[in-house]
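Please, structure for the following, as tokens.
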Amino acid sequence: LLRLALPVMLAQLGYIAVQVADSAMVGQFGGENTTPLAAVAFGTSISWLFFFLCIGLTIGLTPLIGEMFVQRRKQEMAHYLQTSLLLYPLFGVVCMGLQIASEPLLYYLGQPADVVDMALPYYRLMAYCMPFAMYYGSFKQFLEGVGNTKAAMIVSIVTNVINIVLNYIFIFGKCGFEPMGVYGAGLATLISRILNPILLGGYFVCAKQYREYIALFSRKAKHWKNSLHLLKIGLPISGQMVLEALAFIVTGIMMGWFGTEAISANQIGNTYGNCTFLMVLSLGSATTICVSHAFGRRDVNEIADVVRSTLLMAVVWGVCVIATFVSLRHLMPMLFTENEAVIALASQMLVLYGAFQLSDAMQCTLVGVLRGLQQVRSIAIISFIAYIVINIPVGYFVAFKLEMGASGLIVGYIVGLSTAAILYGAQVARYLRYLRKIS
């Protein structure tokens, strides 16, 4: 698990560095003015909804390739890759169009008008990233399916370093450029997202062990059938990711009802929370790979071993993050802003953000197990119950009815993520009992 997860974690560290750099540089660019940081927070939160819709679809390729790989079905693997290179970018273009078409709706979400005005150009640049992210996803998820997580790590590190350098140049106006602020952060991200599929696709074509899959591309590939199968696996994963993201997005919108200081403080908590989430997402990806290979061999004992190991690692990670958030809560916000009110509010929020790290780590790894078993239909249903039926209403009730304020909205995450972890765990246990029964 660690051998597979560590390269993914290093790649995710690059994304984390970019997110932190975006928020920190824009926050420092704004100084005492919280509007730029709030604009990035708002634009990012809404664009993540479309991003997860796209990326969730590509993740469905990994368990399919993993099962075929251990069964040595190379022709089918090549045909599925071929189909994904047609289907995924097309889906990305559709999502890009939907995101751009949704721009007028942003003014009706109760946010300060100046925040929305500044966020819109950044939001549109994020939309332009979608088709390129989907091309990259095809190669990345195929490689993960065969157990290669290092190639995407190297590409990610390179492009993220470029992203951070361009952030500095564009945001602050260096090397002859005019200061672009929030727009500069979005432009740097778009350039790095364009480079991702170019570099990873180039590696795929040049590497001898993967070039043979390109050679197996055929006009006889059953694109319609393969597309339906990819959608059958990928769309429930997209649904699960979107529903989880929606809970955070709706909470972020409700943060805006408390003003720009609450938006900025929540962005700080969200940034650190996303950092920890991306790390457990790496463990979830490794879990999916290991489980899909064991599932391809129909080895129930190996699947059970992976489940035990990944849950133990999730618990250790969650406890470490809780200790870090609580002990450093007064120092962590200072990286992003000089505003004393924002720092004070973010310090309160970080304690609550720490409180749900254990359940978040467990639910993420359990989802990885279900993806590897291709039992994805249930994860969208559980996500709807945990995040829409429970998370959002609880957060609203605690914040507004119990008058806990902006920090009360985060209580919804604690309850929602804990519910998800329990229900996903029950589903994994149920399916393992079924596999033992039929084996």
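The two ends are 25 Å apart (CA to CA). The chain has a mean pLDDT of 89.
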